[in-house]
Amino acid sequence: MKRYLAYIRVSTVKQGEHGSSLQEQRSSIEIYAAKHGLEICAWYEEMETAAKLGRQMFNRMLGEIEKGNAAGIVIHKIDRSARNLKDWARLGELIDLGVEVHFAHESLDLASRGGRLAADIQAVVAADYIRNLRQEVRKGFYGRLKQGFYPLPAPRGYLNQGKAKPKTIDPTEGPLVRDMLELYASGQYSFDSLRREMKSRGLCGPNGKLLARNAVARILHNPFYMGIIRLERTGETFQGNHTPLIPAVTFQRIQEVMSGRACARPGRLEPLFRRLITCSGCGYRLTGERQKAHIYYRCHSRSCRGTSIRESYFIRVIEAYIKELYLPDQDIGDLRDLAQADAANVEAEAAARRQEQTLKLNLCENRLSKLTDAFLDGAIDKDLFEKRKSELYMERQALRDQLEEVSVGSVRQRIVKKIELVMAKAKVDFDAMEDVRDLLALTTSNLSVVGKELVIEPNFPFGHIIKWQKIKNGEPYRILVRNNPYLLLRELEDGLIWNIDLHGAAKSTCSCRPDHFLDTIAQTAEE
Q1: Domain residue limits, the chain
Q2: How far apart are CA 49 and CA 300, in angstroms?
């Protein structure tokens, strides 16, 4: 009895469970073989679409036939063997060489001209069917993307909700993935230290092992976590309608860290003021180095190689700065009461700021529309279009984040909230390194070394707070009326006046009452 090979196939696991399953195909072939006296010596099973070339089991079976290890092949149906004409042509060559090809579901005599013609027609119809099906699937796929839905499995940290529904944040892994993204954005973690840290927090790979480096890289590179859908294969981007895990500014920071434009050096010495203090001579950051049990900050540029200052000096200066910065609870309470009394203007001010952000967002939308028109008109190629579209999507997402961050509170309320946050940090132990760094980041615009001295430049409104602290117990200081707003601002910065009207002539009296102080910084913030 001649020996034959049997081939059964389903396109997907779902089809194997609910459609023409492998078991049903096997049963049909066994019945056909018994009826025609064929001996099945080997079975080849595959879960792969026949529209694609390179099916492993199919090619292995044809290889066995070409070696002469079997007399022929038994297949369930023509469309189970090939839905692309190249594979069908390969089967045709084997038929021409005398190899027997049987189809259990179709009575075709491939040795005759009519039977061969009928089989060719069915193969062409199957190829056309799959070609049309591919187009329809592609159309539906891109239709979902344009609607903001992600028609692929949810990335880690999100959960699938079904067709035409946005992905939702996984209540268990979502916060952990957010932590991982924020930790890496801080610049203090390498891939390996980040993997170890996340394992300690409960985010692991298979079998409880560390996350694979490739898995970490995919998460850090994926703009899905900031609300943008990007197809890795084509590079196309779409606006998603799912809830982002992180804001756009954090994602951009992650990309800067990964590219080396903003990167710390994990695993090495990390001095307290790393990457915070600049050299006024060359503008480069001072490098912390340990020498003889002390940490020194040095500038390694050729023009400033003599700059070397011990860390203990910086600590003394910054401790004094924090003491000047600190406000008593009574003063903060007075400022808070004044801010709450300003609630009448809250909604109008918030609406004005929202309108400003909305105008910027509309401008970005117009640029996107013009870019699309230019692409459709053939003025730009697809690569440039996708690059610019991705940039505009990220810009639009950043503007949306800013629009959501527009506080419903007044200028006064936001200033007081920031002051309260800084005062809370100012009470912590100076040995808490990260708290000190956070405090400096919140209150200073620049830390620089001039000669052998540290110069601290407080940002708004903390420079005014320090000046107010110095003069609040003194007598009012009166000056002449200034009609030039730039002179008023200069005198304000110099600590000469504390209550001004930038829109009118000027109320040029110096006062140290909390309401005048808060009026001054609120008006400065608005300008």
Answers
A1: 3-134, 158-259, 343-409, 462-526
A2: 61
Q: Which of 502, 494, 506 is nearest to 523 (CA)?
A: 502
Strand, coil or helix: what is 168? strand
Backbone φ and ψ for 211, nearest 5 degrees, come out as: -60, 140
What fold is seen in the domain 158-259?
Answer: Hect, E3 ligase catalytic domain fold (3.90.1750)
The Cα–Cα gap between 276 and 299 comes to: 13
* End-to-end alpha carbon distance in the chain: 96
* Torsion angle of the four alpha carbons 367, 368, 370, 374, in this order, in degrees rounded to the nearest 10: 130
Give the DSSP letter string of 55-101. Answer: -HHHHHHHHHHHTTS-SEEEES-HHHH-SSHHHHHHHHHHHHTT-EE
Task: Write the CB contacts of 505 (distance below 8 Å, at least 6 apart in sequence).
Answer: 481, 483
pLDDT averaged over consecutive 10-residue blocks of the chain (527 residues)?
A: 83 55 85 87 79 74 86 82 75 84 80 83 82 83 88 92 90 92 86 89 87 91 91 87 90 86 53 81 83 83 78 85 77 65 58 82 88 86 87 86 64 66 65 71 84 84 73 51 41 42 39 55 56
Q: What are phi and psi of 91, to 5 degrees?
A: -65, -40
